[in-house]
Amino acid sequence: VPTLAQSTVQVLTPCLPLLLRTETASAIDYGVDQSLMSPIAVVSEDHFRLGQSIWEALWPSITADYEAKIAAQEIAKTPNSPTWQSTFEQGLITIFKKDADLVQNLAKLLEMT
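Now predict its structure.
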């Protein structure tokens, strides 16, 4: 579970600025609009799609976990913050311990890369 949480944070961190902007707009775009992404968050289209798939699987659980939600929002603002990355990782560990199906789903998504 800790390794999965760490891998999830690594994949999501550069994607979160766009994912959260998109989530707020309630419109998930499956293409990467580079003009919307901050320079630090530029990722390949494949990486973004993986991040988007992970985020879609996680979003219901994150909305139910206040600390994980705040940490994700803060990472979107400051992707290089080890403090927020660590907080997000700990929140994911808590979420993963409660949801074995989510863990299996995310492990499969990460395995495909």
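The chain is about 70% helix and 0% strand.
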